[in-house]
Design a protein that fits this description.
Helix content: under 10%
Distance between the termini: 12 Å
Largest sheet: 5 strands, mixed
CATH superfamily: Ureidoglycolate hydrolase
Number of strands: 17
Strand content: 35-45%
Order of helices and strands: EEEEEEEEEEEEEEEEEH
CATH architecture: Sandwich
Shape: globular
Number of domains: 1
Number of helices: 1
CATH class: Mainly Beta
């Protein structure tokens, strides 16, 4: 696989992620989906609506590091899934929701989620496990568990290299 076969992850925004789900930015004061409160020496924000539909379970995944070859993906037909990082940015590879038996490598896009941001993927959006931008990184997820099987399937057309801007010129 050559470097031209890969994709470079973009910083996630509400606009560039809209086909896959929602983005919440809890790092500033401008996201209309966030309500802000403050007190003596503190400030917090919370989502205007529940993060996902239903009573979600909170989980943690210990992801590897970018760059990586996206070889398999899963999707959840019965739940949304929210992703947010603990302290380090993560990379999420996704492909559009579909009724196909597998996502196609040419439809994979990747996004960098920064601390303070949360993304909520729509049902059926294909996705890989996230990876850290600068090294192996744990991240949190929220979804309704126990709704049936969510098998990992090989990416149609073969693996897709996922990189960050940091590796773009490094030949990684």
């Amino acid at each position: 696989m050559t470097a031209s076969d890969g994709i470079v992850a973009s910083p996630v925004t509400a606009e560039n992620f809209s086909r896959y789900g929602k983005v919440y930015d809890l790092t500033g004061d401008t996201d209309p989906q966030v309500i802000w409160t403050a007190g003596d020496g503190w400030r917090d924000g919370f989502t205007r609506t529940p993060l996902i539909e239903g009573s979600g379970h909170l989980g943690i995944t210990r992801g590897g590091s970018a760059p990586w070859h996206c070889t398999a993906m899963e999707r959840h037909p019965h739940t949304e899934e929210a992703l947010f990082c603990a302290a380090q940015p993560i990379v999420l590879a996704v492909a559009p929701a579909s009724d196909a038996d597998a996502p196609h490598r040419d439809e994979i896009e990747a996004f960098v989620i920064a601390p303070g941001q949360a993304v909520v993927m729509h049902r059926n959006v294909w996705h890989d496990a996230c990876r850290g931008v600068a090294g192996p990184t744990p991240y949190y997820w929220m979804a309704i568990c126990g709704l049936g099987e969510s098998p990992w399937v090989p990416v149609a057309g073969g693996p897709r290299l996922v990189r960050t801007e940091a590796e773009e010129g490094s030949g990684a």
